Amino acid sequence: MRLFSPLTALFLTATAALAAPPCGGSFSGFVNGLKAEATAAGHAPATVDRFFASVRQDPKVLRADRAQGVFQLDFTTFARRLISQDRMNRGQSNARKYDSTFDRIERDYGVPRGVLLAFWAFETDYGAFQGDFNTANALVTLAHDCRRPHLFRPQIMAALTLYEHGDFDPATTTGAWAGEIGMVQMLPQDILDNGVDGDGDGHVSLKTSPPDALMSGGKMLSHLGWRKGQPWMQEITVPARMDWSLTGTESPRPISDWAAMGVKPRSGQWQATNLPASVILPQGHNGPAFLAYPNFSTYFEWNQSFTYVLTASYFATRLMGAPIFDAGNPDPGLSGAQMKQLQRKLAKRGYDVGKVDGILGAGTRAAVQAEQKRLGLPADAWPTTTLLKALK
């Protein structure tokens, strides 16, 4: 389920970027280039030969990379599809079963158990399905593909290092189509940087050991910027009228400002009054509403899909005792074809909406909100047929 994050490009060093052979061309020639790069970096030639001996191009990986239609769903539909009562029950059961592990994570890294339980559930259904793509093949296939080679090349070298440590088998290690491994789906470089031997057996086994996977995930979130002791999100109610252009992840304000506008917690009290926060309206001002605290931004270091991030963040609050969200009565959204039409219109107006894919991502949301404000429509970043028709 995880959408590969472009932020893993941070693991690519300037030297590797300069030395990297080009993408594309003959696959065997590309692999030979990788072998030369690995040997030049100091890996033993015999080890490099063994690592790459079984690597094959996998067209299924490329099809998966280009077919992520699930992220075209609106938040309410997506959340209801992913969050079942069974997942709630198993999450609570796992919280009890691994209580001591979660206590250690909260003590050492400050990440609440609900946050990791939600990722564990969404990434692999609590470890039940961790992906059946050969990881080495996936990484090399995606590095050879010229869409985002710089994101995947460093992961190949990280996998080679794991192989040298005895923690990766290029012939048998499997995971997600984008190269993530284990119960919480971590990339090879993530494992090198944040792998933790949570069960004390001397190995970091993210595929078979929940303590290892959960501890490693907690360390990674801490490394990505999670702030200990701070909330991440809570549900709110919004007034019938306010300046909707102030909403969105890029417009944090003091809680006092939101309260003065009529924004209120849906239940209980504000989780923090000393932190800036953003009002998020995933389906416009008539739909569900949430307040996002600074920790919410850490989710985007894990995954770049707005819908996935919001759903994972919400599920974490549910696992920590929050009620089911109020779906409200949002204005009907656009179909996939209409969303693509809208993106093309916005692109012609000079907005950077990224790929025309029918997905309401951050760039499209920002463009929608700007055009809504220009046209005098409620600037809540939720595209409707009214907006589509207004964009001549």
UniProtKB/TrEMBL annotation:
Give TM segment ranges. none
Q: Name one GO biological process term.
A: peptidoglycan catabolic process
Q: Does the keyword Oxidoreductase apply?
A: no
List, alphabetically, the InterPro entries matched: Lysozyme-like_dom_sf, MltB-like, MltB_2, Peptidoglycan-bd-like, PGBD-like_sf, PGBDSf, SLT_2
UniProt cross-references to Gene3D superfamilies, sorted A to Z: 1.10.530.10, Bacterial muramidase, PGBD-like superfamily/PGBD
Q: Does the keyword Signal apply?
A: yes
Q: Which UniProt keywords apply?
A: Signal
All copies of domain Peptidoglycan binding-like, residue ranges:
335-391
What is the residue range of the signal peptide feature?
Answer: 1-19
Transglycosylase SLT domain location, by residue?
27-316
Concerning Pfam families, the annotation shows: PG_binding_1, SLT_2
Q: Give one GO term, molecular function aspect.
A: peptidoglycan lytic transglycosylase activity
- Enumerate the PANTHER family for this protein: LYTIC MUREIN TRANSGLYCOSYLASE (PTHR30163:SF8), MEMBRANE-BOUND LYTIC MUREIN TRANSGLYCOSYLASE B (PTHR30163)
Q: What is this protein called?
A: Lytic murein transglycosylase
Q: Which organism is it from?
A: Thalassovita taeanensis
